[in-house]
Design a protein that fits this description.
Elements: E1 4-5, E2 35-39, E3 43-45, E4 50-59, E5 65-75, E6 92-93, E7 98-103, E8 110-115, E9 126-139, E10 142-145, E11 148-150, E12 154-157
Amino acid sequence: MRRIRLAVPLIGLAMFVGATVPAAPVHANSGLPVCAGFMDNPHVSVGAGGVIAKGRWICDPGVTNLTYTLTFYLCPRVPTGGQESWPAEGCTDASPPTNGAVPGPVPGQTYTGYVPNSPAPAAHGTGYWVGANVYQSWAGTILVTYPEVDSNAVYISA
């Protein structure tokens, strides 16, 4: 169930002053530089001693900042919607979210984030594990994208 959701595009460029965030992001097809995000499927990590998932990003030249939140859930069955519906489907948080930022990402370089985030221990349990990667990329003061990328739901007992 890998999908990418992009917010509604703005007409023209959204600008902000100081800490004021634009009402909506500029669509990824705006011609501005963006980051591509991915969410690896949850898996058992021998090194971490339990279940983890990884978010990954690769950015275009001109991206000035990348921010992200990785979330991780354990579900009794394969969830049918996006992460906003997972709690209603009986899914529980498997770990605290991982929040991160990459100021001035190097174009073409892959950046990786983990959930649970080290030094937190890896997660344990039996069921369908699923992760979400919600990220923002910035070109100067313009918020270019705000997609959610979900992993596939994977049955693991650990």
